[in-house]
Amino acid sequence: MTVLGLFLLFLFIFTFMGVPIVFSLTISNILLIIWLDFPLDIIATEAISGINEFSLLAVPFFIFVGKIMNAGGIAQKLVDFADALVGFITGGLGHVNVLASMFFGGVSASAIADTAAIGGIMIPQMVRENYSPEYSGGITASSAVIGIIIPPSIPFILYGITTGTSISQLFVGGIIPGIMVGFALMTTNYILSKKNRFGKASEQRKFNIKKVLKSFKIAFFPLLLPFVIVFGILSGIFTATEAGAIASFLGFILSAFVYREVGIRGLIDIIIETGETSAVVIIIAAMASVTAYLLTISGVPHSMAEFIGGNVETRIALLLMTNILLLFTGAILDLTPAILIFAPILAPVMREFGISTVYFGVIMGMNLGIGLITPPVGTVLYVACGVADVEMEKLVKSTIPFLFVLIAVLLTLVFFPQIVMFLPSMMQ
């Protein structure tokens, strides 16, 4: 446990000094190796070993899908369909924002991409309909958490690789919790909109089946994509990595040939951006695998299991304690390094207590997703601030009701694990 404490001390010092996370991880690993008196070539061997995974190919595939679908104007088509479905309800544009995030999360696999794409469309519209800018940014940031849970999910891919958990089962396990989060956010939006008299124009609208069918026809192929992914995985036709390749191909066909929004120049730019983003994720994964190796051979997971076993008597108590740890971690460390560092440590502990690593992966993703909208790190908050053009303090205040709702959903999953495991159990 001393080794873990020392590593975290190094990491937090460098992170708060403003050192980029990949360099913070590398320097912390070097210092830990020197302190443990291990050979420095561990960094090279374990870094290469950590990223020598076929499943890791899914990361650039799904990053490419999100970028090309966004460039292809897919976000606007999904927003139009969501508007036709729920735009007439009190708080209409807030509901549209959440529902569009659920749709877009099913193709982008990224909370940040969701915030930028959906926020860029929805926030100006919401402000025009009497929603405050901070509320518009707050619900956009909060609903982006859905993109982490609903398949496909890059965090689930990274978790699956580092813990040896089935990525396909993780994808399927996130479906029902993702829908629950969406419904909970829409209910909260309805209450707050009614109280603050947001979006009065939506109350004068009526449900129009013709508009629904027309917008559905336009958005049909983007909506079909996540269903193809989930059905293919559930039926065993392809793995999560193969699903990424298929989704990339279909996303390219839709954006370049069906909607004709992406040309050769645009495609080249998207490929370059995908390479840059993927490189960051993979380098972090390489350094985090070194960390996981050092902590494992130092006996940290075993020591942690012994400590918890001596102090925690029930499964619920263990999960509640772990949730507190992860919520705190998510507030001070970005999602990708948090998963890559803590998943290899915590997953063996969960196994020892008979807790499914598929279930824990969804719980961990939900926790760290909440961290994306929690200061001081709150990556999604900064994106939403930029899109909504509001001060951080005001935006954070507007997200508080949604934070409580997200935590309530999280606690529901803790007490009722069957919600997460229902669909994955059908695959076994």
Automatic annotation (TrEMBL):
Species whose genome carries this gene = Halarsenatibacter silvermanii
Name of the protein? TRAP transporter, DctM subunit
Q: Where in the cell is it found?
A: Cell inner membrane
TM annotation in the entry = 7-36, 42-66, 78-96, 135-158, 170-192, 212-237, 243-259, 279-296, 316-346, 358-382, 402-423
One Pfam annotation reads DctM
Residue span(s) of domain TRAP C4-dicarboxylate transport system permease DctM subunit:
9-419
PANTHER family assigned: 2,3-DIKETO-L-GULONATE TRAP TRANSPORTER LARGE PERMEASE PROTEIN YIAN, SIALIC ACID TRAP TRANSPORTER PERMEASE PROTEIN SIAT-RELATED
Per UniProt, which keywords does this protein have? Cell inner membrane, Cell membrane, Membrane, Transmembrane, Transmembrane helix
Query: InterPro entries, alphabetically?
Result: DctM, TRAP_DctM
Task: Provide one Gene Ontology cellular component.
Answer: plasma membrane
A molecular-function term among this protein's GO annotations: transmembrane transporter activity
Q: What is the lineage of its organism?
A: Bacteria, Bacillati, Bacillota, Clostridia, Halanaerobiales
How does this protein lie in the membrane? Answer: Multi-pass membrane protein
